[in-house]
Amino acid sequence: xxxSHSAVRRGARRRGELQGPLKRRGSxxxxxxxxxxxxxxxxxxxxxARAGAEGAEPLIEAPKKFSQLxx
Length: 71
Hints:
Elements: H1 3-15, H2 29-32, H3 35-70
């Protein structure tokens, strides 16, 4: 690659003629696979749900204990 190629490319980038990053060569399957992101999102949602359920246990147990004490 010649220096002039880099200069032309920098000028085009400054003028806004280039749209986004260059296309990469190689496998697109790894770049387009949304599974890892989706798995991480779902695992976070599960952790939040478990934390919420653990916090709600005393609220659920209180009426049971009250009904046992009241007879």
